[in-house]
Amino acid sequence: MNRTYELMFIVRPDMVDEDLNKLISTLGSSVTAAGGTIKSEVWGKRRLAYTVRRFNDGIFVLLIIEGAGSLVHEVERRLRVTEQVIKFITVRTDEELKRLDKIKKLRDAKKKTSAAPAAPVTPEAGGEPTPATV
Amino acid sequence: MAEETKAPAAAAASGETRTAERSERPERSDRPERSDRGPRGPRPGGGPGGPREGGRKYFRRKKVCKFCTEKIEAINYKDVRLLAGFVAESGKIVPRRLTGVCTPHQRRLSAAIKQARNIALLPFAGRAQ
Fold first, then answer.
1. Does domain A3-96 match CATH 3.30.70.60?
2. ipTM
3. Which chain A residues are within 8 Å of B73, Cβ to Cβ?
């Protein structure tokens, strides 16, 4: 049930800051009301790579949402209705985060096993049992 | 080995003596020798290290996958600078044989580039203004 999504959307460049914050908080409250968590990041005004609805710049906002898919469906619906939002994309990230986590754990485990023998070897230089395979 | 039957007393299995033989005895049909070595060309041993005339097309200097060497695991649509290095001036995704990226990373990279294009971080065509 705990799926993580990243929702990035672009808002018209001529939007006011407070309106933007209001929009983000309305979306946020709809998510938390339905039992999910949300984190938001405003990237600010950026130049678009191509013209979208006759705009060449836009304000980018990133939302990280944790919850069921229906939450995200609802947020998307609201974004579609909002006139100021000109583009959005949703990416599901929990599998990716799981994979990255696994890789990180593997790397940490490897580092530990390669670092550990180096420490105890030096004090026990004389008393190490040598395998008698001669 | 077949060479021993043709070789003179001083012959070894080295390549040099074989060429000497060929120049000395042109009437011998050396075709069967070449055919069992493969259709690749007269000297496949020289191959990737220093391909001689005609073998230039395969295997340039062995390019390594940038993601594998630098251990970059997360290829995100959001880091435009990383992605832009794999996109041509025309906006097209550069093929794997030119960049040297390995297959799983190339797949993730192209998925990320396509996502970035959708969110107007990268252009579909033409230079990003």
1. yes
2. 0.78
3. 99-100, 103
